[in-house]
Each structure stands twice: as C-alpha cells, then as structure tokens.
Amino acid sequence: MRKINFNAGPSAIPLPALELAQKEMLDFEGTGMSIMEHSHRGKDYMRVHAEAKALLIELMEVPATHEVLFMQGGASMQFALVPLNFLAAGRRADYVVTGTWGKKALEEARRVGEARAAWQQTDVQGRYVRVPKQAEVSFDERACYVHTTSNNTLFGSQYWQFLDTGKLWQVCDMSSDILSRKVEVSKFGLIYAGAQKNLGPSGLVVVLVHKEFLKAASEHIPLIFRYATFAEHDSLLNTPSTFGVYMLRNCLRWLKAEGGVSGMALRNEKKAKALYAVLDELPEFYIAPVEKESRSHMNVVFHLANAALDEAFVKAAAAEQMAGVKGHRSTGGMRASIYNATSQQDVETLVDFMRRFARQHG
Amino acid sequence: MRKINFNAGPSAIPLPALELAQKEMLDFEGTGMSIMEHSHRGKDYMRVHAEAKALLIELMEVPATHEVLFMQGGASMQFALVPLNFLAAGRRADYVVTGTWGKKALEEARRVGEARAAWQQTDVQGRYVRVPKQAEVSFDERACYVHTTSNNTLFGSQYWQFLDTGKLWQVCDMSSDILSRKVEVSKFGLIYAGAQKNLGPSGLVVVLVHKEFLKAASEHIPLIFRYATFAEHDSLLNTPSTFGVYMLRNCLRWLKAEGGVSGMALRNEKKAKALYAVLDELPEFYIAPVEKESRSHMNVVFHLANAALDEAFVKAAAAEQMAGVKGHRSTGGMRASIYNATSQQDVETLVDFMRRFARQHG
Questions:
Q1: B45 contact residues in A (CB cutoff 8 A)
Q2: Is A101 a catalytic site residue?
Q3: Counting beta carbons within 10 angstroms of the beta carbon of residue B152, is it exposed (0 to 12), middle (13 to 18) or buried (19 or more)?
Q4: Which of the following is catalytic: B53, B94, B197, B271?
Q5: Do B99 and B218 touch, CB atoms closer than 8 A?
Q6: Which one is catalytic: A94, A119, A169, A197?
Q7: Higher pLDDT, A76 or B125
Q8: Are B42 and B174 in contact (CB under 8 A)?
Q9: What is the ipTM of this complex?
C-alpha cells in the first residue's frame, strides 16, 4: 500500500510517472532495453531528451531568449557554478538570504569571490520567517547578479511578489517550487532547480539561462563548469542522468494532463489554504512561525505548542499511513511538504488528522 | 523481447538488477513508496546507501586507507575536480594519454593549472592503439599526481600491467573497467568511475580516494568540489543520486552472486578471447587496430576491411537483435562493448554472426 508522502525532498512522485517507469523498465517503448541501457546519443534516448525539454518549455512558457539545460550535482553544485561563471574578479554579487539554502549559496559564492548579503533577517530565535518586500532591499548597482531563493524548503517561506532587480540579472533557486505556479521566466537571468521536489528523482538539475547573461560568463573555467558548454551541446557534452531526464519527462506528461502550471497553482493554493486554516484555527495547539504574507504553498512549517507531543504526533501520523511530517533536523517541529504530486485528498487526510490530534491532546 | 546490448555506455544492466527495480518501483521493501521518494536522510535510503558502499568495499577489497564516495556529474566532472583538488599552484601534474578521454582529462586540467602529457602516442592515422610499458614513461618527480585511464572505451585498449608511479599518487579513470577484474586499490591515490558501464545508470560516479592523498587537497575551493566534503559527510552533504545508488546496490548484489570480481574477470577473459579469436581468424575481413598486448576486454574495436559493408553489418546485426555494434562517431568502424552485464552467450551470438557475415560478404 502506498503511503501519503509529505517528504521535503526527495519527495512524492506522481503515481502515473512511476507506473510508466515500472512498465517500461525492461523494455522502453519496444526497443528491447531499459531507457537506462540506451546510449545517450541514440535516437531513442534523444527522443526522451527532446520531449522533456519541449514539455518544460511549453509548461513554463520559456521564451526563446532562454536556454534549457539538464545538469547534475543538485542545487548545491549550482551554488558554486553560478559565481564561477558570473562573479567577475573585482566585482561583487548580491545575495538575498531568506533561508538556510540561500545562506549556503552565499557562503559558497564567498569561496569563489566577493559576495554580500543584500538582505538577511531572522527572528529572535534565529529562524527565517519571511521574505523581504521590495522597499526593504537595495542592491549594489554594480553587482554581477542578485541571487534569490523563490521558496524556502526548510523554513517554509515563499515569495508572492518576486523582487525587481532592475537592470541587474536575477539568479533564482527554484528547487522547491518550480512548476508549482506561473513564473515570468523572462524576468530571470538564470533559474535553477534540483529535480527531487517537483520534477522527478534527485541527481538531475534543470537550468534556464538567458542567452545574453551567458555572454557575460567566464571562459577561464573548466568546460564542464560552463553553462555555455551545456547550451552549445544541448546538455550532451557528456552523459546526462538519462534516467533522471526520462523521469522528468514522465512527471511533465502527468503535469500537463493535470492542467499544466495553472492547474497546479490552483490545486496548490487550495491545499495550502486547507493546511494553514487548521493552524490558524488552533493557535494554542499549533504554531505557524512564518509571517502570513510569506507563507509557502510547498512547505507548511509548524510546531506543536507542547513540544513533548512531537513524537506522539509523528507516530500517530505514521499509523495513519502519513510519512515525512517531521521537521528538518535543524529546526525541529513539523513540516508538511505538499509539492505538486501531493493531492488535495492527501492534504485533507492530514488536516483531519491534525484536528483529531489537537482534540485528543489539547 | 530484450535485445543483446553492446552499447558503450550507458550500456547493458544485469537483468536481475532491473527486475528488482521494476518490482520495487512503487513500493520499496514494503515502505509504501518508491526508493526515489524516500528522504536521503531517512533510514530506508540510508540502508541502501550503506549496503551499496559495503558491497563495493567487499567486492573491490577496498582497504581502510581509502574512502568510498558517491558523487555526480560523470567522469567529465572528475576531469575538473581532480586538478582543482590536487594540482597545487606552481606545481604540475602528469597525464598518461592513451585515448580520447585521457586527452580530455588533460585538457581540462590545463584549464586549472599546469599539466603535461607524460606519454602520448597514436598511430599514423591518429588512433590510440596501445598503452605504454613502464620503461617508456618517465614522470616528473615533483608532479602532484599522475593521471591514467585504465581502459579506453573509445579505442579499445587496456592496461594489463598498471604503471608503477613510485612515490607519486596515481589517479586512475576506471569508468569502463571497474569491477571487471581484480585491482589493487592500495596502489592508487584516487580511482573514479562513471557508473554507466559496469556499475549502473548514468549520473552516479564512484570515487575511491586515499585518506593521505586527501590531506593534500585544496581547502580554497567551493565545498561541493572537495572530495574531503564527501568523505566527511558520507556523500550526504547534499542529496545524492539516490536512484543511482539504489541501482548500484542492485548491480553489486548481482555481481556478488555471479562470483564477484574474480568470477567477472574469468568471464570477461573468455568473452574477449572469443571475439578477438574471430578477428584474428579473419584478418582480411576484420581489422583489429589495437596492439595485441593492449587489447581491451571491455571494448572490442574493429573495422571491416571493406568499409562499404559497415552499414550492412550494423543492419544485419540489428536484424539478429544485436544493438550497439557501431563504433564511436569519431572513429567509425565497429565496437562491441562487452561489460560485466554482457553474457558469454551474447558474445557467442555475435561471434557466430560475424563468421557468417564474413562468409557471406568475403
């Protein structure tokens, strides 16, 4: 029996995407071998590669100004590749730090060159509980780029109004909310996303990069570090994570059939509303630390007012076939990650459970 | 129906490894979710991670001096990471260039620091047809390391006696022959291998690195580039390719059941002998460019004396359910890649076909 999966990443994958992978595991579309056994330069894999890319372009409405790249190494690899490519010597990059991963991105940039936190704010307990408003942030007008994180997986905040970086290129880590809502790709110099939340399995990274921004990239770094290399070779300079791209294709087919990005956005809003509603209804039992205007639709973070009940909560949820509700080890508390693959019904099951649990232990 | 797969990589995967993945695709060991949907920090994935690592240590007899790392980005990423970690400023690295990938590794190192070809030799047609003997190579005694390629996928040569690099650390790309024969891991400072030939699907890279060598690594590069980071965090600083590690586990279970590395070595020798025998028997029809002492047991490279028959050969092989016999686009001709997952019977089918084809067209 399949569990209800609230894991933060790797996380739930749409069942039809997995079922197709299962069906085709030994024989991909009558070719007599698994997609994993196909050459990355053969026509069968190339078809998958092209379909995944075309679906991504269609679903995200990627303009012709942007390249779509398939890379590896997770968002953490992007933390290093972005400054290596774009942080020129003698110049600076601005980082808007709204959570743990943004902070890590800044720290990694500082191992490459000069970078500063253009904005960084935590509450008295050291938690990141909001994203900034436009008026709160000022950028270095000579910055090579501004780095932002669209959704903070760990603390559960999300931009509902992206920052306007004016003439500066905006580089955005969208690992945990890509394809969950409409985004104007044209406003970003570079978008990157590890696949293991809304796109498929870990090990694959999707990058969208503006062709003009690419022209500013360093040519004095190893070939394999250059976004330009991936753009020139259609992400096939070397062997990509072929199974990762295949699973991405399967997930995007499902997403398209489910109403595309606008369908997902509607569903995600409903799911998040239902969960935050129970938190707001029971503030003496459940505490939602994130400011309302910054609440994430992907990662709903909360604590039990009585932390002594934490273990019982996780156990009782598990007994009702719900996995992954425990918060990140660095924050404690609870977190329900409700990415695209999590259904309205999954969330209602959790909401119902949370109400019952509060009644029983309140 | 499953094809006989002679692809050079990604390549054949043992059927039981795929069948297990198929069976467990929706529900890994009764956990109610795919292994791809499990958190990389949860006990279920951790069990897989630990088993894959333990099997690798057991099968390769990895000594306690060496760390086992799971990385991403293919061998091509290692081409850059090796010099970034170990090529100190003002010093040099030696590369023994025995094929296209070794050459690419050298070129990438030169984008990082100073590196030279300690040996490099092609025939009059520009083909790499042999590996050097010890007496032919002299190393820079101040080199940070010596880089070698144990098996050359593209040209089909292989070391049967590894070079002795004395006090210098030897870094070896074993992507295309890891686990195909016994190797004294203790003699290497670092071994790396992209998984898509003998270990599983593309996207995963296995690294074995000597702990003493690690101490010489740079601490002035991004965290995600450092082998030390992966060693310290058991390859879990960030999310690994969890499905890749799972498939590695499945492949290693199969390999162990099939007699381990010594079982594979015996089988691989038999397979290679059978194929080279037909090439040697029919030298007027088939041309094997690689010198006999350097012949690879993994990639059997040959040409038809009459290149006009190339297309007919590939077509006729395909008609008998054999895929992947076409040579690399840069070399032309034919190549049968006969990694661990290729059976004796698969090779006999090819040998039989090659005899018939020569009779019919000779």
A1: 10
A2: yes
A3: buried
A4: B197
A5: no
A6: A197
A7: A76
A8: no
A9: 0.98
**Among the listed residues B180, B177, B162, the one whose alpha carbon sits nearest the alpha carbon of residue B263:** B180
Amino acid at B260: G
Question: How many CA within 13 A on the CB side of residue A300?
Answer: 25
Per annotation, catalytic residue among B173, B254, B271, B326: B173
State the pairing for strand pair B205-210/B190-194.
antiparallel
Q: How far apart are CA B106 and CA A29, in angstroms?
A: 39
Interface touch A241/B202, C-beta < 8 Å = yes
Å between B73 CA and nearest CA of chain A: 5
- Residue B41: what are its φ and ψ, rounded to 5°? -105, 0
Q: What are phi and psi of B191, to 5 degrees?
A: -120, 135
Nearest residue to A339 (alpha-carbon basis) of A200, A149, A135, A232: A200
Which pair of tokens denotes residue A8? 């933060």
The full DSSP string for A117-176 is EEEE---TTS-------GGG----TT-S-EEEESEETTTTEE-SS----TTSPEEEE-TT
Residues in B 294-323 with any Cβ partner in A closer than 8 A? 321, 323
The vertex-A76 CA angle with B200 and A14, nearest 5°, equals 60
Provide the pLDDT for residue A330: 85
State mean pLDDT over A166-187.
98
Is residue B97 scored above 90 in pLDDT? yes
Exposure string over B54-77, b if 16+ CB within 10 A, otherwise e: ebbbebbebeeebbbbbbbbbbbb
Q: The pTM is what?
A: 0.98
Taking the Cβ of residue B29 and every Cβ of chain A, the question of whether any pair is shorter than 8 Å is answered with no
Q: Six-digit token pair at B334?
A: 């034919």
Q: Considering A94, A119, A169, A173, which one is annotated as catalytic?
A: A173
Q: Assign residue B156 a region (left: φ > 0; alpha: ψ between -120 and 50; beta: otherwise).
A: left
Residue closest to B324 by CA, chosen among B308, B338, B341, B312? B338
Q: Are B247 and A36 within 8 A, CB to CB?
A: yes
**Catalytic annotation present for B197:** yes
Give the separation between CA A304 and CA A357, rounded to whole angstroms: 11
Chain B contact present for A12, CB below 8 A: yes
pLDDT band (50, 70, 90) for residue B331: confident
Chain A segment 216-245 residues within 8 A of B by beta carbon are 220-225, 237-244
Q: Which residue of A has its CA nearest to B19?
A: A26
Q: In this structure, which amino acid lies at residue A40? A: H
- Catalytic site includes residue A187: no
For residue A33, give the nearest of B2, B38, B247 by CB distance: B2
Cα–Cα nearest to A20, from A254, A340, A263, A261: A254
Provide the total of helices (H) and of strands (E) in chain B, helices listed first: 10, 14
Number of other residues whose CB lies within 10 A of the CB of residue A266: 12
Contact B201 A247 (CB under 8 A): no
CA distance A5 to A13: 9
Nearest Cα residue to B74 out of A25, A237, A83:
A237
Question: What does the pLDDT look like over A295-331, one tens digit per residue?
Answer: 999 999 999 999 999 999 999 999 999 999 999 888 8
Alpha-carbon separation of residue B17 from A95, B9, B25, B60, B255 (angstroms): 44, 17, 12, 19, 10
Q: Strand, coil or helix: what is B285?
A: coil
Of B70, B342, B130, B42, the C-alpha closest to A11 is B42
H or E stretch including B19?
helix B15-23
Chain A residue with minimum CA distance to B203: A241
